[in-house]
Amino acid sequence: MNILLLGAPGSGKGSQAEQILKENPFVQISTGDLLRNALAKKTPDGLLAGEYMRKGDLVPDELVLKILKERLREPDCENGVIFDGYPRNVAQAEMLDGILKADGKKLDLVLNIESPFEVLMARLLSRRVCSKCGKSYNMISNPPSADNICGVCGGKVIAREDDREDVIKNRLEVYTSSTKPLRDYYESRGVLFSIDGDRKIPEIYEDVKMIINRKGKN
Ligand code: AMP
Fold first, then answer.
1. CATH code for the domain of 12
2. Residue 41 in contact with residue 151, Cβ under 8 Å?
3. Which one, of 167, 166, 149, lies nearest residue 158 by Cα?
4. What is the predicted pLDDT for the residue at 126?
5. 15: buried, middle or exposed (CB in 10 Å: 19+, 13-18, 0-12)?
């Protein structure tokens, strides 16, 4: 099954993906993570992407598509993919449809996690991530140990460079103008399910799980 997690930055897409992966044989593909890895390795694509990411702007479609296609070629994608952060606009959605179709596949489910602006802003300001394994923390609801050490891998827990108030504001604006139209795109294709994201992770996951199971039985 191929699932898209749709939702603004801070809506909890990554946390829901983590829960889904515990119970399903899928892989998660986060284009944000792929781009951050490329940037950390200082590849030419990564360095170029970094210029957009620092400001909270979208990276050009062709560049994101290139790294996404490379990732999708890997054999672990065969059992199903959770797309997190891709597509971000209608042009990318059409590209993804094309890639999947060429492989005899499709997006089976789009889970749209909705939260108010103030909730997203507060979550992103208090979000921290492990610099080694990427595990997500929140200084209010799920803090790391006192010395900011990751409980999973022992890596250093830090704030993401783009989780700064001015950059967050731009990312949320970009989401509203570019990514929200995707709701209509997927609604008209009958695959969209909207979920209240202003709740605790396990409560949201109950809904996510129910929708995935129902789809799996169809
Ligand atoms: P994320 O980790 O999903 O919040 O993404 C972090 C940043 O990576 C975004 O603010 C964009 O600059 C870039 N990015 C991630 N995914 C995409 C995408 N599908 N299209 C364009 N830019 C992206």
1. 3.40.50.300
2. no
3. 149
4. 96
5. buried
In a domain, 138, yes or no: no
For residue 95, tell me if it sits in a domain. Answer: yes
The boundaries of the domain holding residue 94 are: 2-26+79-117+166-217
Q: Is the CB of 31 under 6 A from ligand 1?
A: yes
Judged by DSSP in three states, 72 sits in helix
Rg of the chain taking only CA atoms, in angstroms: 17
Candidates 36, 123, 128, 160; catalytic one: 160
Whether 151 is in a domain gets the answer no
- Which residue type is seen at 163? D
Residue 86 near ligand 1, beta carbon < 6 Å: yes
Q: Report in angstroms the alpha-carbon separations of 136 from 91, 174, 209.
A: 29, 22, 21
pLDDT digit string, tens, across residues 188-213? 999 999 999 999 999 999 999 999 99
pTM of the shown model: 0.92
Determine whether 189 is an active site residue.
Answer: no
Q: Does 144 sit in the ligand 1 pocket, CB within 6 Å?
A: no
